[in-house]
């Protein structure tokens, strides 16, 4: 589900939820590079060393569509944020910042 679909859910009064695992990189590119010992050239979409400059800014997009949202940077804050998202009677976006070294499972080789 993308932010535009959450906006539609907001208009239709559907309490859809979206959780973004935001690694500030094109995650599948990183994973392929790691898996097959390729040179690491994964295109970053943000600067993980400067967490104040996270982009794209999913929070700004969600707010632009009047969809409640929040960002989690610290693991200790995740459980409470997920509970707030699940308890919400509105569409909700949770942007969770994860290390770009985290891989997606299951990994299916094409």
Range of strand content = 5-15%
**Terminal residue distance:** 23 Å
**Major beta sheet summary:** 3 strands, parallel
Based on CA atoms alone, the radius of gyration comes out at 15 Å
Shape: elongated
Oligomeric organization of the protein chains: single chain
Number of strand segments: 3
Spans of 5+ residues with little confidence (pLDDT < 50)?
A: none
Estimated helix fraction: 25-40%
Order of helices and strands: HEHHEHE
- Structural class based on helices, strands and sheet pairing: alpha/beta
Secondary structure tally, helices: 4
Mean of all residue-level pLDDT scores? 82
Strand order of the largest sheet: 1-3-2
What brief labels describe this structure?
3 strands; 4 helices
Short note summarizing the structure:
The protein is an alpha/beta fold and 110 residues long. It has 4 helices and 3 strands.
Would you kindly provide a written description of the structure presented here, covering whatever features stand out?
The protein has 110 residues and is of the alpha/beta class. The chain has helices at 3-12, 27-35, 58-64, 78-87; strands spanning 17-22, 69-72, 92-97. It has four helices and three strands. Strand 2, helix 4 and strand 3 form a beta-alpha-beta unit. The chain is elongated, with a radius of gyration of 15 Å.
Topology (SSEs and partners):
Blueprint: H1 3-12, E1 17-22, H2 27-35, H3 58-64, E2 69-72, H4 78-87, E3 92-97
